[in-house]
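Customer escalation, tier 2.

The customer says the design service returned an amino acid string that "doesn't look like it belongs to this structure." They asked us to rerun it and document both sides in this ticket. The original structure tokens are below, unchanged.
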């Protein structure tokens, strides 16, 4: 089967076949630049001491400082962190941001910590990795089960260690502490902009297309809200505990309000006769566009053949395995890949970093216009590359990104240069 990181490497090899790149590039991208593992001791509220495994990976910094989130999840491990950093390297190149990819994680069930314990853990993470990160070296951000207040604690701890305020070290902060307006819905809005821009190419439209969204966290709730407001029919939604389906549609805002009250989407109001279904049933439901927005490896070899949606928009990182990709491609299903579809988050994080560096902050319309100005041209370039080369969109996105990374690596000189 191979590890997640091994599977991710297959994307690189597939893209390299379509480019005349120097072997130096592939050699440099084969493994991360550096990965640090740490054991983080935290004093719990009852006085006991617990240690948590933690990691930070800087995959490649050829194009600039590394950038990527920190996730809190019991299943986090080094293989996952390295893979996520690999994906971030290509995602930043797709959006043409002056970054390489990074990622971090702590193996913890954050729901079992008190708020005070969560703060102590977050500050301890920065204490462990303070020399590894930095505003010109590696810039963390929120990810799964981390949020603005966690980033605020982390930025504050880094500033305390460095001896002066340093907001550019972390993005995804509250606006009051140097965060950017527009960051809260950036990932979902980026996916929304890509889909709307490619509507005619994909043969979808608000008046006729039905959408199912797997996962109902920040990115998913915003993309569902935006698409619903434009007239798309949302017929399926799920969270980590339950899933609902209604062919007559539902209002995602009403579902979110229900989830806030009850902690789950099950039982939420819909337009017709709601059915409670399983997560896998949602992935294989009758719809025109499927949006996986939860964890990686959700569509796998075992269920890929049952997917009925002709279009998949990946808002999660790596929700489709390479084996499943092959099946989906064979069945003529178009996948808009994660490194394009969910690049809105890192793009607005980049805007936040720029604003922190400049000490000058933009208004919401400017942030949203700048996001559109990046997402739409990159989506068009990848679609055109797909059509020109007769390849799937994922491969086209990796080719698009790899060409930029390769030019940067080769600009330092290759074997041919040094032997001339």
């Amino acid at each position: 089967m191979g590890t997640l990181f091994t599977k991710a490497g297959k994307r690189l090899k597939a893209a390299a076949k379509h480019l005349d790149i120097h072997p130096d590039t592939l050699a440099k991208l084969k493994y991360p630049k550096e990965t640090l593992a740490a054991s983080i001791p935290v004093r719990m509220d009852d006085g006991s001491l617990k240690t948590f495994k933690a990691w930070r990976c800087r995959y490649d910094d050829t194009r600039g400082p590394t950038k990527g989130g920190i996730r809190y999840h019991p299943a986090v491990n080094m293989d996952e962190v390295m893979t996520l950093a690999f994906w971030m390297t290509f995602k930043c190149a797709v959006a043409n941001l002056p970054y390489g990819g990074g990622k971090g994680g702590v193996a913890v069930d954050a729901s079992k910590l008190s708020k005070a314990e969560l703060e102590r853990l977050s500050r301890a993470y920065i204490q462990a990795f303070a020399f590894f990160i930095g505003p010109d070296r590696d810039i963390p951000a929120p990810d799964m089960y981390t949020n603005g207040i966690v980033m605020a604690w982390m930025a504050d701890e880094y500033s305390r260690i460095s001896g002066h305020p340093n907001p550019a070290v972390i993005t995804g902060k509250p606006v009051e502490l140097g965060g950017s307006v527009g960051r809260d819905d950036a990932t979902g809005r980026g996916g929304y902009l890509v889909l709307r821009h490619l509507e005619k190419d994909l043969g979808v439209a608000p008046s006729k297309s039905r959408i199912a969204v797997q996962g109902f966290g920040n990115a998913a709730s915003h993309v569902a809200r935006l698409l619903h407001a434009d007239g798309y029919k949302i017929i399926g939604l799920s969270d980590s505990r339950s899933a609902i389906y209604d062919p007559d549609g539902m209002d995602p805002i009403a579902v979110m309000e229900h989830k806030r009250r009850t902690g789950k989407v099950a039982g939420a109001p819909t337009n017709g006769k709601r059915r409670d279904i399983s997560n896998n049933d949602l992935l294989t439901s009758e719809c025109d566009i499927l949006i996986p927005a939860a964890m990686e490896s959700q569509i796998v070899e075992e269920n890929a053949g049952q997917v009925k949606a002709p279009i998949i928009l990946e808002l999660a990182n790596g929700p489709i395995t390479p084996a499943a990709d092959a099946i989906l491609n064979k069945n003529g299903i178009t996948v808009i890949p994660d490194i394009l579809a969910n690049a809105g988050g890192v793009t607005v994080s980049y805007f936040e970093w720029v604003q922190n560096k400049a000490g000058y902050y933009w208004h919401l319309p400017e942030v949203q216009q700048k996001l559109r100005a990046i997402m739409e041209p990159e989506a068009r370039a990848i679609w055109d590359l797909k059509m020109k080369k007769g390849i799937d969109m994922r491969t086209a996105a990796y080719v698009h990104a790899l060409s930029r990374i390769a030019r940067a690596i080769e600009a330092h000189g290759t074997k041919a240069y040094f032997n001339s």
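Tier 2 assessment: The sequence is consistent with the input. The mean pLDDT is 94. Residues 364-389 form the longest helix (26 residues). Sent an explanation to the customer and offered a walkthrough call.
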